[in-house]
Amino acid sequence: MDDVMPETPVTDNAALEAAKKQAAEYLDGWQRSRAEFANYKKRQENELGQLRSFATADLIKRLLPVMDDFDRASKTMPDSLRHMTWMEGLMLVHRKLQLVMEAEGVKPIEVKPNDVFDPNIHEAISQDDADGIESGHIIEELQKGYKQGERVIRPTLVRVAR
Fold it and tell me: Which domains are delineated in the chain?
């Protein structure tokens, strides 16, 4: 009886190799699925962030005329009214609105006379002759423009020299 050797080790090795191969395939499939899911989550987070950004930008566009009104009121306010308590309260509301805009990443586009006109951030309302200002340069800012990050929410309205 000792002379007969069982043939089970050969089949056990083949079965073991087959199981290892199958386990490696399952592991590879699982890793691919996990990577695909991670990529999917990143895409969804980016899309959600973009959607939030667009929604915020839409709301901000509707609030910009209010900012413009506050700015105009502040610039044209007579000195006799400037130190009245109720007027200071109104200016505090203006400042709160500015802080909300800043918290959302909204900043005014800085424009000075004689800056070069840039159609990406400026909108020309008129082209006029101007002494001492080169053609294609800004004469005057008519309405403040705003950016949220690098995206222009509203271009600055300007007069340009011809």
Answer: 106-162 (2.30.22.10)
Neighbours of 137 (CB within 10 A): 16
Nearest to 125 by CA among 107, 142, 110: 142
DSSP 162: -
Identify which of 108, 107, 109 has the alpha carbon closest to the alpha carbon of residue 118. 109
pLDDT in tens, 137-152: 999 999 999 999 889 9
Over the stretch 56-80, which tens digit does the pLDDT of each residue have? 888 999 999 999 999 999 899 998 9
- The Cβ of residue 150 has, within 10 Å, a number of other Cβ atoms equal to 6
For residues 135 and 156, the answer to whether their CB atoms sit within 8 Å is no
**Verdict on whether the full-model pTM lies above 0.85:** no
- For 117, the 3-state DSSP assignment is coil
